[in-house]
C-alpha cells in the first residue's frame, strides 16, 4: 500500500467487509491503546471495542461506502473520513491508522450517526 | 486547556467564531505542513488554505455547532469531529490539532458536506 488514498481505500474495503461478515474479527485492527467513540460513548482497548461492536442491536448489516477522504498526518499516520449514504442510516466515521509491522491498526475511531 | 474535550470545545468555539467574523484570521491556526480537504479538493499550507476559505462563494455565514466528539491520539494530538445541523447545509469536519508552544495548530482539516 502506498499513499493515503490507497491505504484508505484498502482499509475501508477490508473494515466494512469484515464488519458485515463477522464483527468479532475486527479485534485484530485495534490495540489496547485504541479508542472508539460510538455516538458519544467511549470505549478503550480491543476487547471493549469489539464487545461494543458485536453487541450492537442488529444481526445483519451491509455498509455501502459513498465517499472517502484521506490525509496523511505525521509521516506515520493516516486519517480517514467515511460518509455512508445507505438508506436508512447515514453516518460519518473517522479512523486514525498507525503503521504496525507493515500493516496498520486503528488508534482512533469516531462514529457518529447523521440525522437529516 | 486540559483534556481532549476541553481542548475541542475551546478550539471549536474559537475556530467558528473566527470563521464567521473574519476568515482571513484563520491563517494563524495553520502551518505550511497543514492540509485541508474541502469537498475532496486538497489544499496545503496556511496561504493556500486561507485563500480557499476566504474565496468561498458567500459573504455572511453563521456556524451552529451541534455535537463535538474528541479523542486524544498520541500524547500530543487531539482529533475532533463536528456535526453541524444548521439549516440548510449539514457538514462534518475533522481537525487534527498539534501542540505548539502552549497553543495548537491545525495539521489536518477534512470538510465534507452531508447530503440528506
TrEMBL record, chains A, B:
**A Pfam family for this UniProt protein?**
NTF2
Provide the protein's localization.
Cytoplasm; Nucleus
Look up the domain of life of the source: Eukaryota
Check the record and name the PROSITE patterns matching this protein. Answer: NTF2_DOMAIN
Question: Which GO BP terms, alphabetically?
Answer: mRNA transport; protein import into nucleus
Chain ranges passing through the membrane: none
GO CC annotations on file: cytoplasm; nuclear envelope
- Which residues belong to any copy of the NTF2 domain? 7-113
Keywords for this protein: Cytoplasm, Nucleus, Protein transport, Transport
Q: What does this protein do?
A: Has a role in nuclear-cytoplasmic transport of proteins and mRNAs.
Concerning PANTHER family, the annotation shows: NUCLEAR TRANSPORT FACTOR 2
Indicate what this protein is called per its UniProt record: Nuclear transport factor 2
Amino acid at each position: 500500500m502506498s499513499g493515503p488514498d490507497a491505504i484508505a481505500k484498502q482499509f475501508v474495503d477490508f473494515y466494512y467487509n469484515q464488519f458485515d461478515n463477522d464483527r468479532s474479527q475486527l479485534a485484530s485492527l485495534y490495540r489496547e491503546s485504541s479508542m472508539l467513540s460510538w455516538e458519544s460513548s467511549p470505549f478503550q482497548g480491543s476487547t471493549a471495542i469489539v464487545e461494543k461492536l458485536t453487541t450492537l442491536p442488529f444481526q445483519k448489516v451491509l455498509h455501502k461506502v459513498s465517499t472517502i477522504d484521506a490525509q496523511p498526518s505525521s509521516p506515520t499516520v493516516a486519517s480517514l473520513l467515511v460518509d455512508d449514504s445507505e438508506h436508512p442510516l447515514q453516518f460519518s466515521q473517522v479512523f486514525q491508522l498507525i503503521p504496525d509491522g507493515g500493516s496498520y491498526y486503528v488508534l482512533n475511531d469516531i462514529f457518529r450517526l447523521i440525522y437529516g
